[in-house]
Write a structure and sequence with these properties.
It is a single chain. By secondary structure, the protein is of the alpha+beta class. The protein has a domain of about 140 residues: outer membrane lipoprotein receptor (LolB), chain A, CATH 2.50.20. It has three helices and twelve strands, in the order αββββββαββββββα. The protein has a twelve-stranded mixed β-sheet. Strand 7 and strand 8 form a beta hairpin. The longest helix is centred in the last third of the chain and has 15 residues. The two termini are about 25 Å apart.
């Protein structure tokens, strides 16, 4: 997801990379997510298989489809009938703010025991991610359940950012959810920025 600040962007990249890397253990599922950043709350839906994911952000109509099997990501804008294609590895890290280390570093977890989240008894961890041989690090909390391949909840230490998955349903996902959009015009990031700039100028 775009425009997420540290450590959220680092955490998001780690979550997807970890889920795809653990294909043998990953399960097909869908869920609703609630992402909070300061005073801003974003909601949407996630559909996932061992090598595919689809994020739908409520209120914007924007969709992000990641295909690890094809090493590609599509950023889809239904209202504009356009989409942008990016390389999978670069796309995950492209959301990071300028100056952020471009690797996920060495990750370690400290077990903090159990907590109840959304009626579930989850194990809480303090996660530390170190970069550049320990010269820099990010830290955040995550809550996990044993039958779910990624953290149910992630939260920054200061509580300014959190992302939680709710209404998790384990079931085979419709393959059509992860297809390249048909009837849409494929454009570059630069063309998308120009399109948005023109639309914003018309609103003034």
């Amino acid at each position: 997801m775009k425009n997420i600040k540290i450590p959220a962007a680092v955490a998001a990249a780690i979550l997807l990379v970890t889920a795809f890397a653990c294909a043998a253990a990953a399960l097909d599922f869908s869920a609703e997510f609630v992402e909070k950043e300061g005073e801003t709350t974003r909601r949407g839906k996630l559909f996932m298989t061992s090598e595919k994911s689809r994020f739908e952000l409520d209120g914007t109509g924007e969709i992000e489809v990641t295909r690890a099997d094809k090493r590609v990501m599509w950023l889809i804008f239904p209202k504009k009938k356009v989409y942008v294609e990016e390389a999978f590895s670069g796309a995950l890290l492209s959301a990071l703010p300028e100056g952020t280390p471009k690797d996920t570093g060495d990750l370690s977890r400290e077990d903090l025991g159990y907590e109840i989240v959304d009626t579930f008894r989850l194990r809480k961890y303090l996660v530390t991610v170190k970069y550049n041989n320990g010269e820099a690090e990010d830290r955040y909390y995550e809550w996990r359940r044993s039958d779910f391949p990624i953290p149910v909840k992630t939260e920054s230490l200061n509580g300014e950012y959190s992302c939680e998955y709710k209404k998790i349903k384990f079931a085979p996902q419709d393959p059509n959810l992860f297809n390249e959009p048909k009837g849409y015009r494929k454009i570059s990031i630069e063309e998308l920025e120009e399109l948005e700039a023109k639309q914003n100028s018309k609103k003034k």
